[in-house]
Hints:
The chain is of the alpha/beta class. Helices cover about 40% and strands about 15% of the residues. Helix 3 crosses helix 4. The longest helix has 26 residues, at about 95-120. The termini are far apart. The structure holds NADP nicotinamide-adenine-dinucleotide phosphate.
Amino acid sequence: xxxxxxxxxxxxxxxxxxxxxxxxxxxxxxxxxxxxxxxxxxxxxxxxxxxxxxxxxxxxxxxxxxxxxxxxxxxxxxxxxxxxxxxxxxxxxxxxxxxxxxxxxxxxxxxxxxxxxxxxxxxxxxxxxxxxxxxxxxxxxxxxxxxxxxxxxxxxxxxxxxxxxxxxxxxxxxxxxxxxxxxxxxxxxxxxxxxxxxxxxxxxxxxxxxxxxxxxxxxxxxxxxxxxxx
Length: 230
Ligand SMILES: NC(=O)c1ccc[n+]([C@@H]2O[C@H](COP(=O)([O-])OP(=O)(O)OC[C@H]3O[C@@H](n4cnc5c(N)ncnc54)[C@H](OP(=O)(O)O)[C@@H]3O)[C@@H](O)[C@H]2O)c1
């Protein structure tokens, strides 16, 4: 399978890329901004099957992303995992911060999907998985300081439902994993000292399995991945 994953330089994306690369039949195309970290990822690929591409999703155009994907004859799985979290009281946020959040979390995903559609419609098992957040799900617990982040993830959830409907004729399935807290650099930077009940490697195994198999069972679903209620 040809699998494209964004935000693969660290955290959940890094471990998901490695998990998917355990199968020598998979080719993992990994994007993020940090070239040095991507080099480490590539060097840890068990079968030399991770291909890295430095790209800033906030500033890349759809044409830039199409050029990265062009060598693939087809794309089977696209995992829109890249994201940023800025923890700031709403009253102190400025439009630049909202812009940076939505550029990375929402518009980056929009551009990746647009670039990948022509290659995904050739696949018999096409699956787009958007990595959302419990904070972007209606009726869940909300936390001060996360308005921009949570709003961007709510948009990702809604985009998932819309794309699932629109891409049905192309036989491309689209689902969203709304993750709860995971121990990663992102979480540690935003909430120093907070310990989540699950680590990045463990969550990556779940994400990888979902991406490979669950297109058969669901489409347009926002799947909460959390042990907390609500
Ligand atoms: N950790 C949690 O508790 C948690 C909970 C719910 C949802 N999530 C979601 O899960 C996903 C992964 O989170 P994580 O905790 O693993 O975060 P992380 O450790 O901060 O990793 C985020 C990844 O996104 C990439 N990225 C950020 N901005 C980018 C941009 N403009 N262009 C390209 N790549 C960009 C980063 O790479 P570069 O810096 O190299 O570009 C990095 O590889 C995110 O979408 C996050 O919102 C996480």
